[in-house]
Amino acid sequence: DAGITQSPRHKVTETGTPVTLRCHQTENHRYMYWYRQDPGHGLRLIHYSYGVKDTDKGEVSDGYSVSRSKTEDFLLTLESATSSQTSVYFCAISETSGGQETQYFGPGTRLLVL
Amino acid sequence: GEDVEQSLFLSVREGDSSVINCTYTDSSSTYLYWYKQEPGAGLQLLTYIFSNMDMKQDQRLTVLLNKKDKHLSLRIADTQTGDSAIYFCAESILFSGGYNKLIFGAGTRLAVHP
Q1: Cα distance from A57 to chain B (closest Cα, Å)?
Q2: What are phi and psi of B71, to 5 degrees?
Q3: Are the Cβ atoms of A100 and B105 closer than 8 angstroms?
Q4: Which site among A77, A82, B65, B99 is 20 to 30 Å from B74 CA-CA?
Q5: For A40, which of B48, B100, B106 is closest by C-beta distance?
Q6: Residue A9, pLDDT score
């Protein structure tokens, strides 16, 4: 599992409330990613990070912000949750070996916005 | 544009071979991946193939790549009930900023029946 944990694993919240999801890795990987998974869409990239304090937007970044103050933690924040953000959120790291880069995923956080 | 397409469902009998197909659009893909997702779990890397290869075999898994047609397939020999899962095809594209962007298909749900 490449030493990736996510917390919480499940969360129910109300529309308009802020929510922060945490991704923690123990193997000093430089690149970290946040995806959301929705039926019929596969996984879509929200934001990614290429180092401490270095982040950039993915394809579905509206309504989300991220922070990376330490190598091991990548936080995803929904400033004001909406029902359209009900989804399963996956964190990933990438590992390079022999010139080939592979992404490994955490167990996911299931978020329900009522 | 970037797009990865897969059929949504496949049903096979235990012991038969399963073939899951995928098409992609970006000819600059460097690697193509197959991930497996079991219910309630994250994505598990199954196998990958470099874009200059035609075939890769790994135990019961065979990956075939037709670069001309941009077609990727995953064959699972002697399919077992434990192979029931959602299988995601993904292509890797080198993105500005130096990271590899993964584009996922929507996933193929494989159901194995006795």
Answers
A1: 11
A2: -125, 130
A3: no
A4: B99
A5: B106
A6: 96
